[in-house]
Write a structure and sequence with these properties.
With about 80 residues, the protein is mostly beta strands. The protein has a domain of about 40 residues. About 10% of the residues lie in helices and about 20% in strands. It has a two-stranded antiparallel sheet.
Length: about 80
């Protein structure tokens, strides 16, 4: 989920129907270089994820459904 004060995030969920049962070729794991600890963070970075390439690489065809929404963290509740 979004970290505080980052702004609006766009989320896209795509649903594919597999033609047969098989393993997926996941995108490579990228380590987060902005980790504050001495060891790199294992956060998977999905910036500029190419869903079309993923579908082709995994022989998924066209999506059968899609969901798109924007999300933003709410500010703290105000006292009344």
């Amino acid at each position: 989920m979004p970290r505080p004060s980052i702004g609006i995030h766009r989320y896209v969920f795509l649903l594919f129907k597999q033609k047969r049962r098989r393993g997926q070729n996941p995108p490579p794991l990228l380590l987060n270089p902005s980790s504050s600890s001495s060891s790199p963070s294992t956060t998977i970075l999905r910036d500029n994820f190419d869903s079309r390439k993923f579908a082709v690489d995994n022989q998924l065809g066209l999506p059968v459904a899609a969901l798109y929404f924007n999300a933003q963290r709410e500010t703290a509740a105000r006292r009344r």
